Q: What sequence folds into this?
């Protein structure tokens, strides 16, 4: 499945960072193909420009991915804004090749749950960063996601 240059720009206006998409010149390549990902993650607590893993919340997310045994390149990360709706997420879901979604602090993602597409909504990254108690709860949620994906750690 591929996205046209216009679709990529539309998703960026919704707050979805192009990471790890490759921007291509429309004249040389009319569409962008999204590879398969091990997991899709959405959070409003991440930087929407530059490296999503550079901020303190991004570093926490990076450690969580590492603890799950996932390389950062295997995870599609969508920094989202308060204006991002369930419909916006559905548009992106239709273009992604990921077997599951983890939403940090955004319940809109529950609308994407299907029998064949599990969705985990857990605490926001910012609140988790400041609470060791929440880190344990989030880790328990992520372990459930690992079982869905048949990841061993």
A:
């Amino acid at each position: 499945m591929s996205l046209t240059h216009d679709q990529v720009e539309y998703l960026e206006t919704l707050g979805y960072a192009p990471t790890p998409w490759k921007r291509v010149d429309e004249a040389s390549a009319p569409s962008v193909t999204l590879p398969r990902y091990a997991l899709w993650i959405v959070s409003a607590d991440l930087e929407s420009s530059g490296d999503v893993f550079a901020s303190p919340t991004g570093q926490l997310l990076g450690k969580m991915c590492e603890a799950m045994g996932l390389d950062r390149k295997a995870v599609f990360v969508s920094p989202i804004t308060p204006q991002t709706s369930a419909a916006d997420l559905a548009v992106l879901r239709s273009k992604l090749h990921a077997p599951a979604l983890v939403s940090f602090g955004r319940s809109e993602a529950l609308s994407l749950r299907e029998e064949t597409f599990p969705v985990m909504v857990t605490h926001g990254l910012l609140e988790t960063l400041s609470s060791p108690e929440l880190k344990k709860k989030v880790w328990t949620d992520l372990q459930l996601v690992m079982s869905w994906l048949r990841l061993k750690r």
